[in-house]
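Input record, target 12 of the design panel.
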């Protein structure tokens, strides 16, 4: 009898169970391996998915940045825009909108508006922006002795404004057969052969005659006193037709036949305090136009009908 024939049924059953157990363990091992592979594949797929999303975000950011660059003008584009605006402004400033059609003269009393305009060589029809030539106008104006100060400026869109401060003629010094017209500072404004309707001053020896400059005389201190007296006359509303100056006395004519005699200081004080004005008002009320008013050092005035 062979060995296989001698195996009992119990032994066969035992062996079958062992073989089945081994086969089951092998299947579990294979299944575990499959599970591990599946997990690894899922992890790889997730990593790939995350990487793809990051790449898409980066691409989107670059696309947005490119759009912004396209919308924003470049350096040369900005330069061309600025140049275009400048050219348009220049063209507009040269248009007829800024052509001078009015000349406004201000501050003048001695000269008329037309005379000031002619002195400045100002004309209409020129471009207010580019052809005003302010310096040349000021040069022309300030060359005139009567013009102490001048300003020239634009008033958009089409007006030239000329503002002047004039010197005020206040007296005339005799100079041979001529008269030297001066202002309150002794500046020579003009020379004339015609007797002006101003206070005529005699008694000075003139040494310097130049338009626009102070008249030069031999006795400068006495000339300063005269100018101060002329200032008091203006502020005190007193007018003399003629003043004769000596080193000791001043003789001032209210009329040809009504005179005031005094020392310089006494006459100035009497005018400044209003006393001479009161005396003259009283004489005018009485219709007295002939005589002599003498002012003493104490400020009192006496009147005699004789000259």
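The sequence produced for target 12 reads:
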């Amino acid at each position: 009898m062979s060995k296989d024939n001698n195996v009992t049924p119990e032994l066969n059953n035992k062996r079958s169970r062992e073989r089945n157990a081994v086969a089951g363990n092998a299947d579990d091992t294979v299944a575990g391996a499959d599970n591990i592979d599946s997990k690894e594949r899922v992890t790889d797929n997730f990593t790939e998915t995350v990487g793809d999303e990051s790449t898409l975000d980066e691409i989107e950011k670059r696309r947005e940045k490119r759009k912004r660059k396209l919308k924003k003008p470049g350096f040369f584009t900005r330069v061309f825009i600025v140049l275009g605006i400048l050219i348009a402004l220049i063209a507009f400033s040269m248009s007829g909108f800024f052509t001078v059609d009015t000349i406004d003269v201000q501050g003048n009393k001695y000269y008329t508006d037309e005379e000031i305009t002619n002195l400045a060589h100002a004309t209409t029809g020129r471009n207010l922006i580019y052809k005003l030539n302010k310096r040349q106008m000021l040069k022309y104006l300030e060359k005139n002795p009567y013009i102490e100060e001048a300003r020239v400026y634009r008033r958009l869109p089409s007006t030239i404004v000329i503002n002047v401060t004039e010197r005020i003629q206040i007296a005339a010094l005799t100079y041979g057969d001529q008269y030297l017209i001066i202002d309150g500072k002794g500046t020579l404004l003009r020379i004339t052969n015609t007797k002006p309707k101003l206070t005529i001053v005699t008694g000075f020896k003139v040494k310097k005659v130049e338009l626009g400059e102070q008249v030069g005389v031999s006795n400068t201190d006495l000339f300063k006193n005269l100018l101060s007296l002329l200032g008091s006359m203006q502020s005190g509303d007193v007018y003399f037709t003629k003043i004769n100056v000596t080193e000791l006395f001043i003789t001032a004519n209210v009329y040809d036949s009504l005179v005031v005699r005094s020392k310089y200081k006494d006459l100035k004080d009497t005018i400044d305090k209003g006393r001479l004005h009161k005396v003259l008002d009283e004489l005018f009320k009485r219709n007295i136009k002939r005589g002599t008013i003498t002012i003493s050092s104490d400020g009192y005035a006496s009147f005699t009908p004789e000259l």
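Confidence is low (pLDDT under 50) at residues 1-7, 28-36, 45-50.
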